[in-house]
Amino acid sequence: MPVKNRFAEMQEEITKWRRHLHENPELLYEVHKTAAFVVERLKDIGLDESAITTGIGRTGVVAVIEGKTNTSGRVIGLRADMDALPITEASGVDYPSKTPGVMHACGHDGHTAILLGAAKYLSETRNFDGKVVLIFQPAEEGGAGGKAMCDDGLMDRWGIQEVYGLHNMPGLPVGQFAVRPGALLASSDEFEITVTGKGGHAAAPHDAIDTTLVASQIVVSLHSIVSRNVNPVKRVVLTVGTFETDSTASNVIAHQARLQGTVRTLDTEYRQLAEGWVRQIAENVAAAYGATAEVEWTPGYPVTINTPDETQYAVEAARAVSAHVDDDTDPILPSEDFAYMLEERPGAYIFLGNGDTAMCHHPAYVFDDEAIPVGCSWFAELVERRMPAA
Ligand code: NI
Known about the structure:
With about 400 residues, the protein is α/β, with parallel strands linked by helices. It is built from 10 helices and 16 strands. The chain has an 8-stranded mixed beta sheet with strand order 1-2-4-3-5-16-6-15, with helices on both faces. The protein has a 4-stranded antiparallel beta sheet with strand order 10-12-8-13, with helices on one face. It is elongated, with a radius of gyration of 24 Å. It binds nickel (II) ion. Nickel (II) ion binds near residues 108, 140, 167 and 360.
């Protein structure tokens, strides 16, 4: 089961695009040059200016490719993310980032190039009955750019009925795919707990309320949420990442402490419950010692949930491209803001093998350009199978 021949021919060109993007990484919503590059390529491949819209979700780009016919009335969204990470590159590639401290360490340069490659093919052939909406989004890395595009009316304005995206996956051999129906990536919420006791002299604890001790008890107690409150067959992770107090000396009892942490889950109902449990434990443990705890809860990305039918379409397209498609892969606990698009429309998110490299977000991470024709073929197969030419 091969990649489409046209993509094998185009691989060198798409690789050049990818490496250009790699050399010029931009953060969050500041993807101005990247978005301009996307627009230029879309024009080069023959899309009319009227089919391209910029500034959706601040710096996102949306473009439409019409099939030869449109009797199906079907509209499919294909999404790529464009932003990089604040990481100093140590990948050793001969086309490194030209921007100090910024690196495409998650392969979004590859995703953008792959969607551009698919767009070139779909624009040349138009061998489908319906409409494709290309979605190039900013700020996937913590900025909720996908939500910003949805808030700008992405789904309704372009009449998108279903939506698909891919992410490269280090550790999965190049040429392979992995996906599953249901939850694929976790939600990610953050909390900050400010604990206030009563500072004092280390030698007179009876005159103080030892905030460090109280905050320590809170940390320990929070871990009972995952082990005791959560149904053991469900997946929830709670991590306290920071613990700071206002004491700067070994002989001072802290007055205030600040804990920061994250709760991730594959179960939407546990997002709500976890917030309540964190508040309950923090406030009541503090109260037991005569201290107070204030909890600030910041909701992050939702659970990425693939819908069953669309996952099946994604699997069928992947099987047309590759002999190795895992349609029941284990979910993972990072989060992904494609989740916002999947909250608005049915769709599927699939992992594309990126071979043996450092994990995403590592300074030594390398995107494998051999994955390009595989990813392009998947998008193209999906379109041609889901909207067969009339
Ligand atoms: Ni990513």
